[in-house]
Amino acid sequence: MIEPLFSDTLRVVNVGLEVFADSIDAAGGAVQRTDWRPPAAGNSEIGAALASLVNLAAMERANGSAFSAYLNAQPVLEGIGTARHDVPGMGERMILHAGPPVAWERMCGPMQGAVTGAILLEGWAEDPDGARALAAGGEIVFEPNHHHACVGPMAGVTSPSMPVWTVRDSEHGHATYCNLNEGLGKVLRMGAYDPEVLKRLRWMERVLAPTLKAALENHGGLSLKPLMAQALHMGDEVHNRNVAASSLLLRALLPALLETGAPQARIAETVRFISGNDHFFLNLSMAACKAMLDAAHGVPGSSMVTAMARNGVEFGIRVSGTGDQWFTAPAPRVHGLFFAGYSVDDAAPDLGDSAITETAGIGGFAMAASPAIVKFVGGSAADALGATSEMRHITLGRNPELTLPVLDFQGTPAGIDVRKCVDAGIAPVINTGIAHRQAGVGQIGAGVTRAPLACMEQAVAALARRFRDGK
């Protein structure tokens, strides 16, 4: 029986070191190579923690509950308010920011720039030097948006007078909030704060927000998940590409806008601004995704990720079964396309709460729906399809309401499971903008990055301790 082994062509599946496959190739054998690596890059402590969570009945039940809550959530655009009056726990001298907690002294350039601009907008200081001194002096409280049911793109800065969208999950009752999108380029969220930026923000507060608020009062609640689903069918991934979603929003609100009785000039300004801002829907997408994920948050024993966020210094995740604890690692660099005259050397590390979209199964997870996105973030249409397919390996399931035409209308991969990320060594993919590392410059490009696996490993260890201690 052993003779054929030496006379026939060897057909081998190689798992592990490539050198073994190389030797079989050299000997004329047929070898199938597999890209297998030990979990957690061979870290035995994390590997043991992961093993203790595999096929754990209590965790599977918890994940089923968390994922069902996410699927059942129905985010509805309820209206527009102000952060001071609507965002829970918003203080008079408080500024919210993207990502996990960070003090002024540790903030990256664009976040310090956005804070400087917010202080000037609020009238707390007369000039940028005074604003920076005030920020460093301890009189302003800085807290993450996520601690206040809020999200914000890039620097994510939200100050008391800013208008905010109010999105309510009609299934579970909670509300989430996000400020209004300024457009691309030299904008506050990218760290710019010159007079042009502040003038636009004041116009948004004085004209845009009240006009849209009146239109929403005429329209009534606007269900966002069907609109997002339609946008996916029209070529958006609803994070870095929102052309269709912004157009669909304007189409839905336009009749109600015309019925507000607002001066024609004000309506024209509002329509012109939205029409000229392909990213206008982004902030609504973020608030909707947070509403869906907040429904899944706080399920004891669940390993489902309910937030991914970055402050330009650290990348952080929150996991349903570990409450409001942050698991952090250094913020990664972004690989992508840069505006003329800029390069990766000019870029700040990854920044913003907008990865809430990927956490909810769109954005980078839905790139297969949006081959045109590669023109904005780099890569190829095949890369976009591959990214979506790869994410299926680290998620709990698919969202049947957010489907992808190119994949025969399968739902987007959703429900990131930290166990699967660590086991497979696959990091969640994220589409994002790129801000200049210095305050005051603004956006310099867009691209793709990955969540650090170190965050997932920390979460696995924390979950293992909780199960071990019976919590």
Rg (CA only): 24 Å
Number of helices: 17
Estimate the helix proportion, in percent. Answer: 25-40%
Number of domains: 3
Strand order of the largest sheet: 6-8-7-3-9
Tell me the fraction of residues in β-strands, as a range. Answer: 15-25%
CATH C-level class of the largest domain is Alpha Beta
Structural class: alpha+beta
CATH architecture of the largest domain: Alpha-Beta Complex
Topology:
Elements: H1 3-7, E1 11-15, H2 18-26, E2 30-34, H3 44-53, H4 57-72, E3 75-82, H5 83-86, E4 94-97, H6 109-122, H7 128-136, E5 141-144, E6 150-151, E7 163-169, E8 175-179, H8 195-219, E9 222-223, H9 224-233, H10 243-258, H11 264-275, H12 282-296, E10 305-311, E11 314-319, E12 327-330, E13 335-338, E14 351-352, H13 356-359, H14 374-377, H15 381-391, E15 395-404, E16 410-416, H16 418-424, E17 429-435, E18 443-450, H17 453-468
Parallel strand pairs: 1-2, 4-5, 6-8
Antiparallel strand pairs: 3-7, 3-9, 7-8, 10-11, 10-14, 11-12, 13-18, 15-16, 17-18
